[in-house]
Amino acid sequence: MTATAPPRDRAPAGPPPAARSAPPLWRRVSDSGWAFLLPFLAVFAAFMGWPVVYGFWLSLTDSTLVRTGGDFVGLANYAEALGDPLMWQTLGNTAFFTLASTVPLVVLALVMAVLVHSGLPGQWLWRLSFFVPYLLPVATVGLVGQFMFNQEIGVLNQATGADVGWLSEDSVALWSIVIATVWWTVGFNFLLYLAALQSIPDHLYEAASIDGAGAWARLWSITLPQLSRITGVVLVLQLLSSLKVFDQIYLLMGNNPTDATRSILIYVYDTGFTGYRLGYGSALSYIFLAIVVAVALVQTWVGSRRNKGAAA
Amino acid sequence: MSILTPAAGERNSRREANRRQRSLILGRSRLARGGAMTVLVVMALGWLFPLIWATNSSFRTEADTVALPLQWIPENGFTLEQYIGLFEVGKVQLWMTNSLIIAVAVTAITVAVSALAAYAFSRMVFRGRKALFALTIAAIMVPPQLLIIPLFDQMVALNLVDTYAAIILPQVVAPIMVFILKKFFDGIPRELEEAARMDGAGPWRVFFSVVLPLSRPILAAVSIFVFINAWNNFLWPFIVTTDPSLMTLPVGIPNVLDAYGTVYARNMASSMVAAAPMIVVFLLFQRRIVRSVATTGLGGQ
Asked: Which UniProt keywords apply (chain A) (predicted)?
């Protein structure tokens, strides 16, 4: 067998190389699982494991960007965070953004996928329209958003005759960010739904059409029930990615988000990199990490309960 | 798979499949077909409009971009001056090169490292395998964004701030991709590898000449997904670069604009330049990208 002609679907038939006696030590090491795992373990330990541990240590100190290795202060940072109104406000903003964006991001993706999957002419164009925004760098989303949301010359106000400060009014800005986010990222969920729709067996629809069920009845009695599993997946992925919102808020607000629009991650960034308080910023990160893990665990738990319920 | 029949490459069979699909899902009702089509057209227009408007505005003089009332055809006609000005400054080409170098490096390293680890988790027997795999799964839950502070501090300590390495290395840890690849490797029949082993091939040989060739589709899917994310990544490159000559497109473009104040026509031109590479890639490989996002995304369950 030669390396240049890898067998595709049948066992290699070439002559075996010379028989080997007991392999030397370096050979045993290099042929073991550890050797395959080593590169991943190295980057994982250096850029995930260590920062997780080190970040936790930082959160127990009063380190700053100019003076790392600060003094150990115990849980003082956490105590301060719990009494910090800005942390609660930015957490509130994050929760609001997560709920307000997740609902349309799931529902609209579902609507788009069901419509496109119906096989209407123009498949290529529909997929392009809904998915292409997902490929845009966030810089583009920020600039185009600022341009369209602009109060004086923005196309939104000009076309509708409204006079809304889409990004400048505190009560509206977060909604505008939600709109931009839905436009930008719905394509990903749309594709997940589309893939799931393609795996619904045709015979279900054939049976329904023999029974005389119309399009509406087919949608409610076949399509939607068949999609309940994937909806769970889309929901988890969406909640987790919405909670982590940073980029689009930061750029839509012109690198300078107001307190009414700052997410918790932006607050972490501001604390650590503008305020130079690495210790306090790390403590905020860990509080947030606890929330993310809790959401993930609750989701897993709900998901497994529902699966059990379906199996029973 | 009703749409993606083996003959999907052929236009006619695709059309035929669509027609079948239509009658299966919408039935014969004119109302259902017309209604579905209308909603689809309206939504697609809504989704395309921002891009069309931004493109249109990027081909104008600044005065025409902000002239009220807004018009589809600008008074002084369309012009390339924004794009010419943008490329004359020369930063955009530089950032695009940086983005490309970084995204390619991140993709290559991530896929190599993850595939090896996934194979070890899937096939090899060694002490600590279960514990390490559990750790990898747990790490999926940790958003890398939360590690910016310790990671940055680490980069300062290693004296790596403002280097390619600092931008690239933290992005190559992708436990989710290890998980997806392991699931795929689990599904490959062991007989093929055993046959190769009988012929005296060691695990590396088996991996490179039996397993990898069988895994091309999933490797492509993972690569595409990692590449899209690396190309568009903003937060980490933004934090760890201060030198404009090392910036990536998403970081550089908003940054330089700050220095000039708001110039909408120019902004739209840079937006389009930043967006163009991925859109072109998508137009070329639409099917493949659609499929890979679906596979890797679904792997996340």
From this structure: Cell membrane, Membrane, Transmembrane, Transmembrane helix, Transport
Domains and CATH numbers, chain A: 100-250 (1.10.3720.10)
Name the B residues in 78-137 with CB < 8 Å from any A CB: 109, 112-114, 116-117, 119-121, 124-126, 129, 132, 136
Burial environment of residue A276 by CB neighbours within 10 A (0 to 12, 13 to 18, 19 or more): middle
- Taking the CA atoms of residue A3, residue A9, residue A11 and residue A13 in that order, the dihedral angle to the nearest 10 degrees is -60
Task: Please list the ranges in chain A whose pLDDT falls under 70.
Answer: 1-23, 67-69, 307-312
What is the per-residue pLDDT across A239-256, written as a single tens digit (0 to 9) for each? 888 998 988 899 888 878
Task: Determine the residue of chain B that is closest to A147 in CA distance.
Answer: B264
Contacts of A132 in chain B (CB under 8 A): 51, 279, 282
Per-residue model confidence as pLDDT tens digits over B112-169: 999 999 999 998 888 888 999 999 988 888 888 889 889 998 898 888 888 999 999 9
**A285: contact with B, CB 8 A cutoff:** yes
| Cβ within 8 Å of residue A26, ≥6 positions away | none
For B87-299, the fitting CATH number among 2.60.120.10, 1.10.10.60, 1.10.287.3510, 1.10.3720.10 is 1.10.3720.10
